[in-house]
Specification:
This protein has 205 residues and is mainly β. 7% of the residues lie in helices and 37% in strands. The N terminus is likely disordered. This is FtsP/CotA-like multicopper oxidase with cupredoxin domain.
Amino acid sequence: MKSISRRTVFTGGLGAAALTLAACGNRTAPTEAGTFSPPPVLTPNAGQNVVTQTLTAAPTIVDLGGKTVSTWAYGENLPGPLIRATAGDLLRITLENRLPETSTIHWHGIRLHNAADGVPGMTQDPVEPDTSFTYEFVAPDPGTYFLHSHVGLQLDRGLYAPLIIDDPDEPGDYDAEWIVTLDDWIDGTGQTPDEVLAALTGSGP
């Protein structure tokens, strides 16, 4: 059976599109800090490209097609800023937590070492408010991914962003590219994600 590359799927005519879906299940609640050792500091190989970026999680105001809502996001953007690298690059991404509660970043679909996986209580201590945490990992596989918080219902606010890993052996030769992130929305429209979950589980009023 012939394999289908990301470029084959998303390239057409004059443009290419990358699609991310803001959804992830089984988000784990954080545990007490101090359980996990700090992640290892990775040293780049000779000639290895290093991609650095800081994502600041904070309360913000966003415009949802004319409706203004209060929510949480990375860098006051919804979705958060694109992170782009090439397979084999070393990524150093720092989470600055300016939320009133703990947070983490999970790299959805990326093969990486456990300490960078971003699941509080399972792979790392939650990142406390007004502190930072740097994730370091090598992205081995090209593809269209996304990153998101793995604490409570933070993903159901605005804490997610696209992550594109390009194939060094398959450079895109299209004229234009679109990155589309699909999500439904609740926060700021009359109910919070927490209120909706409480009603669905029967624990609400």
